[in-house]
UniProtKB/TrEMBL annotation:
Family: Belongs to the helicase family. UvrD subfamily.
InterPro entries per record: DExx_box_DNA_helicase_dom_sf, DNA_helicase_UvrD-like_C, DNA_helicase_UvrD/REP, P-loop_NTPase, UvrD-like_ATP-bd
Enzyme Commission code: 5.6.2.4
Name recorded for this polypeptide: DNA 3'-5' helicase
Length: 580
């Protein structure tokens, strides 16, 4: 039996999943953690591509982060989906750049958009802070920058901007002028252009509908209002209209503070021209964990589990954070000697600072640990992940790496886009095979050889303009590493993972240790609006639902800052799940 048939059979055993799988027309699935929304989305897409969508037509599947896109791609590969020119899986921003803005620039009389350059995050933040300083020298730049970013992501109306004050509007104008002077756009600017193109030009919608008669959207709750408008323009045009299959969970929305509107998903589900399905079975966690998670979802249909047992405990650490870290070390030791693999244990922290501290404490205790500090390191994206996967395959081969050569070649062709030829495949394979005996040589030499094999052409593509700067960062980070070291980092085997609560979304581990569950950290003392506190509460909920078997929550009831001790008690969410 093929993987696709086996996956379809599993969906048949779950009435709600089956309803969503067999729905004709638009469908939106509200799905709590671990309820199989990714499985449903990928199985449905693989089935549609194999049975309903005839070439040259295809499908587009969009999600928010590179990590999620990567996971979707891998799952599609496992389901045996063949690549085809009109089949897109990737982030929303890359979809807009590669499939909406660049190809239609000439057709809509805006040739300057054919090769737009996206500013790196560092570059756009630097320009924004300069603009604020020029327009608003006495302001608290952090708050002003946050508000400008928020308004731009939200595509705020003139009245909303007016509420923020003249100085802030001036700073935003300066910022946009700076981008323009340098021929750059940021992501909000890209979304705004895409909204104009799809809303104002029927030809754009018609061509996109012809190429992608089916649109699959993952993590709908985190779409910004502009992205929501793009999706609606493509799917709910009465003349054309791609069929929408969207999944998401309003309770896992974590980016409202950036200007997204989690309620857009509930609004979408309430439309009468689509079928809305709510999933309730959680396949990930044991019953005890599901019971606690349900306590944070009043008013929703409770999740039900299919695995008894599990354990949830609050651990009081009167000595503050150092005490919490020590207890974390002890618990990891117990779990590991009880048979849990280190990479099945995760330590979740509310901030980067706590991640750094706990990483340090674990290292001092001799526990192998993986923490990706995105401030100092490169970010995972389609290019850096491909390089890591290629390095891993080359150095360790199929068995250990977990990658198949065929999957790497698919990723390679996807990156090369229209310029792919069999010659590029041959060059990649020869680099990979040759490096089987060179794992102790410099990782940067491997990267150079990949460049010569075709990666250089990939990096020059407009469509990957936003991802390419991370490769330069990667090169700087791995300068002193051997290929083997890069591989060990990419494999993450036999290491405890330390991760922020925000980045833990979409991941799952046997044992989850949540540190810093103190008031002022969860919610953060910086969260000064009800919306921000609601978001912090959702981060706690997301963290709880990452655990399969065992969840431990560490708290002290106070916080120490450089200046004083804050006796603000334990996080209210610990009480909400009845651990206090
Ligand atoms: N009908 C089913 N039968 C058996 N296993 C299933 C079924 N549906 C989902 N699963 C399994 O449940 C686990 C969670 O599924 P999946 O990753 O798709 O959940 P999710 O809803 O995307 O989770 P999250 O939102 O927390 O990331 C996976 O191991 C998946 O294979």
């Amino acid at each position: 039996m093929s993987n696709l048939s086996a996956s379809i059979d599993e969906l048949k055993n779950n009435g709600c999943q089956w309803k969503a799988f067999t729905t004709e027309g638009h469908c939106v699935v509200l799905a709590p953690p671990g309820s199989g929304k990714t499985k449903l989305l990928t199985t449905r897409m693989a089935y549609d591509l194999a049975n309903k969508i005839n070439r040259p037509q295809g499908a587009a599947c969009i999600t928010l982060t590179n990590a999620a896109a990567d996971q979707l791609r891998r799952r599609m590969e496992r389901l045996g989906t063949e690549d085809r020119p009109n089949f897109f899986i990737g982030t929303v921003h890359s979809f807009l750049l590669r499939r909406v803005v660049a190809p239609f620039a000439h057709a809509v009389g805006r040739p300057e958009l054919a090769s737009i350059t996206i500013a790196s995050e560092e570059e756009s933040q630097k320009l924004l802070h300069e603009a604020i300083y020029e327009a608003y020298p006495s302001a608290d730049t952090w708050n002003v920058a946050t508000t400008i970013n928020f308004n731009r992501t939200r595509m705020a109306s003139a009245e909303d901007w007016a509420k923020s004050g003249e100085g802030l509007i001036e700073a935003a104008r300066h910022y946009e002028a700076k981008l323009e002077e340098r021929g750059l756009h940021d992501f909000s600017g890209l979304v705004e252009i895409a909204v104009q193109l799809v809303e104002n030009h029927q030809i754009v919608r018609q061509v996109l509908n012809a190429q992608f008669p089916h649109l699959y959207v993952d993590e709908y709750q985190d779409l910004s209002p502009g992205l929501d408008r793009v999706v609606k323009a493509l799917c709910f045009d009465y003349l054309t209209g791609s069929e929408l299959f969207a999944v998401g969970d309003p309770d896992q929305a974590l980016f409202g503070f950036t200007g997204t509107r989690p309620e857009l998903l509930d609004e979408l589900a309430a439309r009468t021209d689509l079928t809305s399905v709510e999933l309730t079975r959680n396949y990930r966690s044991r019953d005890e964990i599901i019971k606690r998670a349900n306590m944070m979802r009043p008013g929703r249909v409770p999740m039900v589990g299919d695995k008894p047992g599990g354990s949830v405990a609050g651990i009081y650490c009167p000595g503050g954070l150092p005490d919490q870290y020590q207890r974390v070390v002890d618990v990891i030791g117990e779990a590991h000697s009880g048979g849990v693999a280190l990479h099945e244990i995760a330590v979740l922290c509310p901030t980067r600072d706590l991640c750094l501290e706990v990483t340090d404490a674990l290292r001092r205790a001799g526990i192998p640990v993986f923490y990706r500090d995105v401030k100092k390191e490169y970010r995972p994206n389609s290019l850096t992940r491909f390089i890591e996967s290629a390095a891993t395959w080359a150095a360790t081969g199929r068995e250990t790496s977990g990658y198949r050569l065929g999957d790497l070649l698919k990723q390679w062709r996807h990156l090369l886009g229209p310029s792919r030829t069999p010659q590029y495949d041959r060059k990649l394979v020869s680099v990979l095979v040759e490096w089987g005996d060179r794992a102790d040589e410099a990782a940067t030499t491997f990267l150079d050889e990949l460049r010569q094999a075709g990666l250089g052409d990939v990096l020059g593509q407009v469509a990957l303009a936003a991802d390419a700067p991370e490769v330069r960062k990667m090169e700087a980070v791995i300068r002193t590493w051997s290929l083997r070291e890069l591989t060990q980092r990419a494999l993450r085997q036999d290491r405890v993972e330390v991760i922020t609560t925000t980045s833990s979304k979409g991941l799952e581990f046997d044992v989850v240790l949540l540190v810093g569950a103190d008031n002022g950290r969860m919610p953060s003392h910086m969260s000064n609006t009800p919306e921000r506190r609601a978001e912090d509460r959702r981060k706690f909920y997301v963290s709880v639902t990452r655990a399969r078997d065992d969840l431990r929550i560490f708290y002290s009831g106070f916080r120490l800052t450089r200046w004083r001790r804050w006796d603000d008690g334990v996080s209210p969410y610990v009480g909400e799940i009845e651990l206090l």
